[in-house]
Design the sequence.
């Protein structure tokens, strides 16, 4: 997989997904949305791997490589976002609860 630049366009696209997620959360709830979001991300990642393979046998060979690639990225992103919330708890969480 190619390295992606985390530039303004990247974060703008992230914000677009979050806006969609926030709207959907009002309908289905936060916990179900989290499950939907994670499943959708993993389904798209699986599609990327499958579509990069030439045949089913190659896809089977790419399975472990894909898991080794995507799982640490998710963990790193979650860690980075948790740190962001820890530093900004009052702004993002306490303020949200009081509205």
Sequence:
């Amino acid at each position: 997989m190619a390295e992606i630049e985390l530039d303004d366009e990247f974060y703008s696209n992230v914000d677009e997904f979050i806006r969609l997620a926030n709207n959907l959360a009002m309908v289905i709830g936060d916990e179900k949305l989290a499950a939907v979001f994670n499943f959708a991300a993993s389904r798209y990642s699986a599609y990327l791997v499958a579509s990069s393979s030439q045949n089913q046998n190659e896809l089977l060979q790419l399975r472990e490589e894909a898991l080794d690639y995507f799982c640490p990225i998710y963990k790193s992103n979650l860690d980075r976002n948790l740190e962001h919330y820890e530093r900004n708890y009052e702004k993002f969480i306490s303020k949200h609860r009081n509205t």
User: Anything to note?
Assistant: The chain is about 85% helix and 0% strand.
